[in-house]
Amino acid sequence: MTDQVRKPSLNRRQLLGATAATGFALTAGPASAAAGESKPDLTGKSILITGCSSGFGYLGALHYAERGAKVFATMRNLPRAEGDALAKAASDQDLDITILELDVLSDGSVSKAVAEAERRNGGALDVVINNAGIGTGAPVELQDMEMMQLLFDTNVMGYQRVARAALPKMRAQKSGLVVNVSSQLGRVMVPGMGLYSSTKFAVESMSEQMAYELVPHGIDVTIVQPGGFPTKIWENGNQYTAPMLERADDERKAAYQALVDGALRNSGGSTDPVDVPRAIADVIAKAPGKRPLRLPVHPGGKPQLAINQVSAQTQVAMLGNSPFGPWVKDVNERS
Prior knowledge:
This protein has helices at 2-6, 12-19, 55-66, 81-92, 107-121, 145-173, 196-214, 233-247, 250-255, 257-261, 275-285, 305-319, 325-332; strands spanning 46-49, 70-75, 97-101, 127-130, 176-181, 219-226, 294-297. By secondary structure, it is an alpha/beta fold. A 7-stranded parallel beta sheet has the order 3-2-1-4-5-6-7, sandwiched between helices. The chain is globular and about 55 Å long. The chain starts with a helix and ends with a helix.
């Protein structure tokens, strides 16, 4: 009887289908949320974005610049074709986009890029968007220490490097916005997604704590929680997952055969990735002190909403009457 209780209800085919995207119902929904799109004016805003070679970063650089922002689009390993393509798109549309080299794995690279953006901007940046990240598949046991370190160094420590580089000047001017791109999988998890969820859970907690601590400095923090969108994160992640599976021993792989079979994936779905930059632009345009702590973005299901709500209630209940109460209430009572 005990063995029967422990057996998962999903069969092999269902498991493979569940792990083929970012989660069970996370890619469901209409193709786009563009209908009724707002067009916030970002004129005068300076925005630095990481991970602009593709996906939300590339699309966001163009979107914010189209709204009037001065954009510093960063990516590693310049020169590269993606940088040339973005530069051409900016030139063709007469957009204010400066492309800078930034590798989130390098303290020196991050410091140099942020300092150059501040120099060109003539002072502190208005917005920093931590977007660069990687994802891998396969069960947790198969995520060796080499892969685990790279995941956390990129998805968590990379965000910290960029924030630490930009915050001193933001604090000096008593204003700014840090946007950290997380995921629905930073609140809920799906078997077979490896340690990707773990890194995004870390981003969630790090960002929320930062949000409280920056209230006295007039700096907002927003955590973006995209659902499933057809970007290249999982396709790119295969370059890490495949050699990781090669390194794994046969006994470990055999123990999780169905999940291993679905570990290499191409992101799909019919959703519109520009929905995420659109939502971020709306947040940037909001008045300081009115920006939400968490921003779920997906035209379909958002399974993390209940968790977000109970988390905010719990934080206020725990710390609302403490010396940190004003900070915690300020952050969690925004909408």
